[in-house]
Every structure is written in structure tokens, then in C-alpha cells.
């Protein structure tokens, strides 16, 4: 397998987690909360993949979330691409587990904030207590990003090891 | 390090150019991208739904023979009662046909009922939807009403090849006209979904309630479809009024909340009523594929 397709194989390896998140959202449906993990899925690959591969990976990750949801096309996908470019310049902060956990929480919360406002932008009716609901959603995204990072990263690292992607450089 | 930063800067510039191109692209390209990602996920959704069905099957198969016999006996009793009701409805249908012939009334377009299993539910403040395992291949069209028995579940908003998305009655995008039970003048009220918050049950809002409307005593007032606009058949139940009505700011009308008659998040199966003839509402929906 050539390195060029590593991002696509990694996306397929990550997809079960996205599906799991959709199922968890299904279980949370009565509480109007979405189990959001797309941001956390970016962290482990951004340590090892090349920048262009990360861009494609992040874009597809965003489009997978957007596909069945009424959000302006590309709003989340392009934001995740921007986040991926930013993460590729901050690899020195992703060398240890606490740094990765912090990054997962931040990126997941940031991406969640973007989809929430993107959805609000096209929503047909205004919402009264938006702040309380937004806070609950962001809190969930932060917790989910932190808790799910390790198992997701484990899966992604195993996939990248199998694909022969070089390990994260000590001095990026 | 410097090369890395320069590379990142170049990537940001490329992204900005791509965003500009993306905005200017024809909507068909964006729709194609969305469709491609939906179809990529469709097999997984089908697999999840079928796995659930399989789990239910084995759970039922593990029941004892005595339990099944008791359930069969109960079902036979219910069937007997329903058969009596059916024969009564047959009389009503015959009378209806006879009256229509006398009045030369135009028969409304009939519906083709397509039974669909629910694959997943998805809900946030801004949308409340279910994904069903039937799509364009099964004849589902955007705008078709979705019901469970005589209860309105919602309306099909987007149709893909093998799956469809249904906006629930409580979803902010849902709009419908209705009659209130107990209003002898049959004045029309409006029902629309409201953006929900996670601590409360999802509800819709009923507006333009006449000030002099009084709810039937001792029971919640049902909210029924009018059949106008040709989307929903008439006299289907949308839900019940949530007790209190309160005056609007202008004071000419009242408003209330609508509680769905059934927990919409626990449905396993729904019926999609596909009109045999395309109605005006459906034609409008076809130009609104974004939602």
C-alpha cells in the first residue's frame, strides 16, 4: 500500500468510531444533544500524517458529519481543514498524552461550536435559551473529546503502523 | 521549523482560495458532494438497522412457548375487536362513496403507503430527524407525510437512494395547519416545531388559536390535520395541546404548546404516505433539497 492512500485507509479505520458516535447520538436523541467526536479524530493522525494527507482526512471527516445534517455545505469540513493545518504547525505540543488530551478537548469543542452556529444560521426559527443549550453541548463535546481520544488514537495508530506511516518525529 | 511555518502559511492561503471557489461553485456540485457522503454511509446505517432487527428477533426467539402462547391469545382477542371495527368502517366507506357520488366531489389524490424501518435518530437544538431505511429506490419522494397509525410523525425532507430523512413534528423546520378538537367552527391554527433544549421534552408550538376557544373539559384537546395544502390527509392526529394557552403579544390570538401523541424517539417503524399524484407542496419541496 502506497503512503499516498494512507489518509483514506485511516478514514475507513476511523469510520466505526464516527458510526458509534452516531449511534450514541441516537441514544441521546430525546435530550437534543449530539455525540460529537470529529474533532478528537484529528489529533492522532496530525502527529504522523503529512499536511496534505491531513487536509484530505479532515475534509472528509467534516463532510461525513455534515452529510445528513442541515448545516451549510462545507462549514464544518473546511473548519476542520483549517484546524488540521493549525495542528500540523503545533506538533511539538502533541508529543505527550496530556498535550494530546488538551488538544482533543479544544479542537472538539471548537468544531462543535462551529457546527452549532452553522446550524443556527440556517435554522428556520430562533431559539430562546441558546446559551444554556450551547453550554451543555460544548461540555459534552469537551468530555467526549477527552474520554474518546485514547481509544480512537489507539485504533488510528494501529492502522498507521500497519500502513507503514513513519512514527511521530521527536523534533517536528 | 521555518519551512514548516511557511508551508502552513501556503496551506492557509490555498484554503482561503478553496473557500472562495467553494462559495462560488454551483449548488449542484455541493449537492453532489453531500449525496456522495450520504451514500457512502448508507450501507453502514442499513447494517446497524438490520443488526437491531436481528437482536430483536433473537430476543423474541428466546421467549418461552407459554409466553408466546399467551401473546398469541391476546393478539387473537385484539384481532377480533379490530375485525368488528373494520366492518363498521366498511359501512362508513360505502356511505362516503355514495355521498361523494351524489355531491360529485373530486376524490383527493390517494396515497401509496410504504412501510419503513427507522435506522437512526438524530436530534439537536436545530433539528429533530429520523433516518428511515427506504429511499428513492422504493418510490419515496420529498414532502411525503410520515405517519404511525393515525398519528403524524413528520415529513420526508431529503430522499437518498436507499435512505430518507424525516423531519419530526417537533423539528424547527416543520409547518402545518390544523384544527383543534372542540372547536365547532373549525378555525385553522398553525403548528410549527420549536428549537428544543436538552432538559425539556421536544414540543411544537400551536399559534393563532382564537381567543374564545375553550378546551374540552377533562381531556387534553387533540390537534388534527386539516388536509389543506395537500400534504397531509385530513383528520390525522398531530398531538395534544399542552393544557395552558397564553395570549400573544398583540393579544388577538393565543398560543400553546403541542405534545406529540407518541414518543417520536421510540418508533421502530413508520408509514410513508407517498401521494400517487404530485401535489403543489411536493413540487415546491423539490426545489428545496438543502434541508
Task: Describe the structure in your own words.
The complex is a heterodimer of chains A (172) and B (291). Chain A has 6 helices and no strands. By secondary structure, chain A is mainly alpha-helical. In chain A, helix 1 (6-27) packs antiparallel against helix 6 (130-163). The mean pLDDT of chain A is 90. Chain B is of the alpha+beta class. Chain B has 3 domains: 2-60, no CATH class; 63-107; 111-291, Beta Barrel (Thrombin, subunit H), CATH 2.40.10. Chain B has helices at 2-24, 27-61, 65-103, 280-286, and strands at 111-123, 128-132, 145-148, 151-159, 164-168, 175-180, 189-193, 204-210, 222-225, 237-241, 246-247, 253-259, 269-275. Chain B has a 6-stranded antiparallel β-barrel with strand order 1-2-5-4-3-13. In chain B, a hairpin with an 8-residue loop joins strand 6 (175-180) and strand 7. Chain B is globular. Chains A and B meet through helix 1, helix 3, helix 4, helix 5 and helix 6 of A and helix 1, helix 2, strand 1 and strand 2 of B.
Short characterization:
The complex is a heterodimer of chains A (172) and B (291). With 172 residues, chain A is mainly alpha-helical.
DSSP E strands of chain B, number: 13
- Total DSSP E strands of chain A: 0
Distance between the termini of chain A: 25 Å
Q: Secondary-structure element order of chain A, as H and E?
A: HHHHHH
- What is the number of helical segments of chain A per DSSP (H or I, 4+ residues)? 6
* Class by SSE composition of chain A: mainly alpha
CATH architecture annotation of the largest domain in chain B: Beta Barrel
> Could you name the CATH class of the largest domain in chain B?
Mainly Beta
Could you list the spans of chain B in which at least 5 consecutive residues all have pLDDT below 50? Answer: none
Which percent range describes the beta-strand content of chain A?
under 5%
Amino acid at each position: 500500500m502506497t503512503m499516498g492512500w494512507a489518509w483514506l485507509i485511516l478514514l475507513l479505520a476511523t469510520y466505526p468510531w464516527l458510526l458509534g458516535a452516531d449511534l450514541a447520538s441516537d441514544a441521546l436523541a430525546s435530550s437534543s444533544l449530539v455525540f460529537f467526536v470529529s474533532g478528537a479524530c484529528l489529533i492522532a493522525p496530525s502527529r504522523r500524517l503529512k499536511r496534505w494527507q491531513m487536509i484530505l482526512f479532515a475534509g472528509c471527516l467534516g463532510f461525513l458529519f455534515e452529510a445528513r445534517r442541515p448545516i451549510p455545505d462545507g462549514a464544518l469540513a473546511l473548519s476542520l481543514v483549517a484546524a488540521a493545518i493549525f495542528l500540523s504547525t503545533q506538533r511539538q505540543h502533541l508529543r505527550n498524552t496530556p498535550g494530546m488530551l488538551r488538544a482533543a478537548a479544544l479542537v472538539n469543542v471548537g468544531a462543535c461550536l462551529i457546527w452549532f452556529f452553522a446550524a443556527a444560521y440556517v435554522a428556520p426559527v430562533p431559539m430562546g435559551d441558546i446559551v444554556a443549550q450551547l453550554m451543555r453541548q460544548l461540555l459534552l463535546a469537551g468530555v467526549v473529546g477527552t474520554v474518546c481520544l485514547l481509544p480512537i488514537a489507539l485504533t488510528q495508530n494501529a492502522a498507521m503502523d500497519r500502513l507503514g506511516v513513519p512514527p511521530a518525529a521527536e523534533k517536528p | 521549523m521555518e519551512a514548516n511555518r511557511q508551508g502552513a502559511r501556503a496551506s492557509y492561503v490555498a484554503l482561503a482560495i478553496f473557500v472562495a471557489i467553494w462559495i462560488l461553485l454551483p449548488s449542484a456540485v455541493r449537492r453532489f458532494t453531500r449525496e456522495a457522503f450520504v451514500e457512502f454511509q448508507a450501507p453502514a446505517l442499513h447494517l446497524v438497522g438490520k443488526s437491531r432487527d436481528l437482536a430483536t428477533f433473537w430476543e423474541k426467539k428466546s421467549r418461552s412457548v407459554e409466553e408466546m402462547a399467551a401473546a398469541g391469545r391476546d393478539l387473537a382477542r385484539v384481532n377480533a375487536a379490530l375485525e368488528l371495527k373494520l366492518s363498521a368502517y366498511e359501512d362508513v366507506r360505502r356511505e362516503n362513496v355514495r355521498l361523494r357520488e351524489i355531491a360529485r366531489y373530486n376524490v383527493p389524490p390517494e396515497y401509496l403507503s410504504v412501510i419503513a424501518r427507522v435506522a437512526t435518530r438524530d436530534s439537536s437544538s436545530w433539528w429533530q430527524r429520523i433516518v428511515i431505511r427506504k429511499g428513492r429506490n422504493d418510490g419515496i419522494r420529498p414532502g411525503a407525510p410520515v405517519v404511525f397509525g393515525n398519528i403524524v410523525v413528520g415529513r420526508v425532507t431529503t430522499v437518498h437512494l436507499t435512505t430518507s430523512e424525516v423531519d419530526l413534528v417537533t423539528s424547527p423546520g416543520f409547518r402545518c395547519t390544523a384544527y383543534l378538537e372542540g372547536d365547532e367552527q373549525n378555525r385553522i391554527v398553525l403548528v410549527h416545531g420549536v428549537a428544543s433544549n436538552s432538559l425539556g421534552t421536544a414540543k411544537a408550538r400551536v399559534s393563532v388559536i382564537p381567543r374564545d376557544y375553550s378546551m374540552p373539559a377533562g381531556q387534553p384537546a387533540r390537534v388534527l390535520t386539516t388536509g389543506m395544502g395537500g400534504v397531509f390527509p385530513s383528520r390525522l392526529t398531530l398531538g395534544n395541546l399542552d393544557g395552558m394557552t397564553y395570549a400573544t403579544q398583540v393579544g388577538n390570538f393565543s398560543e400553546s404548546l403541542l405534545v406529540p401523541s407518541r414518543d417520536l424517539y421510540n418508533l421502530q417503524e413508520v408509514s410513508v404516505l407517498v401521494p400517487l399524484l404530485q401535489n403543489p407542496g411536493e413540487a415546491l419541496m423539490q426545489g428545496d433539497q438543502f434541508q
